[in-house]
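Worked problem 6 (solution included).
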Amino acid sequence: MADDDRDWRDQIFTALKDADISLVGYVPDAGHAKLIEASIADNDIDDVALTTEEEGVALATGAWLGGKKSVLLMQSSGVGNCINMLSLRETARIPMVIIVTMRGEYAEFNPWQIPMGSKTQAAFELCGFKVERVDRAEDAGPTVAAALSFAYHSDTGVAVLLSQKLIGAKTW
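Solution. The predicted structure is:
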């Protein structure tokens, strides 16, 4: 199967494997379900279910200090929980990639998701992250691969926002 024929989540997982990601921290989320399941099934990846998103910042920092590359998976509603912890990443120049499934956008049914969804990119930028957005399936794998390369070669943070149009609108 050609790379462009694979599901975009499979392309993202391939990018994680190609970048030698050995730790995936996540808060359970339907939008990330396939990536979480693939991480759990892969014996070369340690998977850690987080109770809150900000724990992931400490997890990724510890992984880097211990010689491992990691990725955090979370939903846009959890980004606000991380603001204070993200100062650790910037101060210590820890490379960090956070892949975010967006809510509060395309065909959102839950008005409680809109405030943080509309401020996710700005929050990351205020915390010193470079932000990449994915709206099309064919861009998912290459964008995550580029984010991983950028972060781990420049000791910076990159957030990849997977749009709600890409992941599909949730229904009540």
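Discussion: The CA atoms of residues 9 and 33 lie 9 Å apart.
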